[in-house]
Amino acid sequence: MTTTTSDRSTTPRNKGASRGRPSRGSAPTPRGPRAGGFLGPAGPAVALILALGVLAGAGWLVGFSPVLAVERVEVTGARRLAASSVRGAAAVPLGVPLARQDLTVIAGRVSSLPQIESADVSRRWPNTIRIAVVERRPVLGVRQPEGFVLIDSHGVAFEWHPSLPTGVLPADVDPTNVAVLVEVGTIVAAMPAALRGRVERLMATSRSSVTVVLSDGVRVNWGTGADSALKADIVLALLKRKPSTIDVSSPHNPAIR
Predict the structure, then answer these.
(1) For position 67, what pLDDT does the model report?
(2) Helices (H), the chain
(3) Most buried residue, 24, 31, 188, 229, by most Cβ within 10 Å?
(4) Of the residues 135, 153, 176, which one is the last residue of a structural domain?
(5) pLDDT of residue 143 exceeding 80
(6) Cα distances (angstroms) measured from residue 123 to each of 91, 101, 143, 207
(7) Whether 76 and 145 share a structural domain
(8) Are the CB atoms for 70 and 96 separated by under 8 Å?
(9) What is the average per-residue pLDDT within 23-50?
(10) CA separation for the pair 175, 7 (Å, rounded)
């Protein structure tokens, strides 16, 4: 009798491998940081909270902390007007943080002073408000019973003075007639020093009838303020002829007598 045997494999199973454990002799897999960075999955949220905290702290420091509050008000450009008058009109609230100061409102209060032509207000960190002013410059003086009303080149009457300041020309003009004051102011502003130094006074009853009287008695019919720079040059040239009157109301057709 012949007996036959089967040739099946008898290799044993690796039980450790089937359970996911490393085989004996293999290096263990290192465990690195979890996905999401050093702080783990909550890292972005924590970073955002920290950033918001920094911003909130900076906002408090700038807008509410006394560290950056106004302690002084600096005034520049004031010559005729006292700096204390500018500060008083500005009414800057001391102790309030610089960032919360309304610069436009402060400038408006300063510009309301008759002597101020313009005002620029700025912050100077950490504790200063700076006010730079441009004062009105008088070019005309209109005599009144108690002195002179001073008027700038824009025709603005802004100050009373007991006497006529040096360099200011007397004018026989209605101080309430703004249109005429503007015209006369334009004429004076266009005059070169060589002619202004010879002017005794100006007279005007309307915008188109301005007369300039010189110190030697010569009367100049100026007309309006248009082409005043050209008219001034013509007057200086015609004065060499020793006239008694000059008419430059039409500068391209001047006349003398």
Answers:
(1) 78
(2) 15-18, 43-63, 83-90, 103-111, 178-190, 193-196, 228-238
(3) 188
(4) 135
(5) yes
(6) 15, 9, 42, 43
(7) no
(8) yes
(9) 57
(10) 132
